[in-house]
Amino acid sequence: MSSTGSGPAAIPWAELEAAALAVRDRAYAPYSKFHVGAAVLVDGTIYTGANVENASYPLCVCAERCAIGVAVAAGGTRLAAVAVCTDASPPSSPCGACRQVLVEFAIDPATVEVVAINPAGERRRWTLAQLLPDSFSGRELPT
Ligand code: THU
What we know:
- The chain is α+β, with helices and mostly antiparallel strands.
- The protein has one domain: Cytidine Deaminase, domain 2.
- It has helices at about 15-25, 65-75, 95-105, 130; strands at about 35-40, 45-50, 80-85, 115, 125.
- It has a 5-stranded mixed sheet.
- Strand 3 (about 80-85), helix 3 (about 95-105) and strand 4 form a beta-alpha-beta unit.
- The longest helix has 11 residues, at about 15-25.
- The chain is globular, with a radius of gyration of 15 Å.
- The protein binds tetrahydrodeoxyuridine (THU).
């Protein structure tokens, strides 16, 4: 029996972080000047997103939600890992709205990890359940 091919696949953290770092250059952030890149591993594929701002400020879209939208549009459903890159030191964590959206697609919030990085190489890491404990999952909704 082969010892490969069973159990959860390893997370390609180096590629995920590199993708978040690279897509950060595409951020459209003329108002905040806060450039954010995000990479999500969904169904084994890396999808990326950047923040997209608007002169009507409440319409700004965060990088994490942009990446999830790209993944879903490609047919993805199961989120296994997240990397977010900003210039902040220490690296900035996802906002509350993005945490909720990430939880929606997480294989398991208790095990799905989010890494926040910056170009200087600093790194912070949490599980989604740490970032958003006791989250609303929709299980409470009537069927
Ligand atoms: N932003 C993100 O892209 N992700 C977050 O989790 C926090 C904030 C963006 C939104 C806006 O374009 C800029 O950062 C400042 O809030």
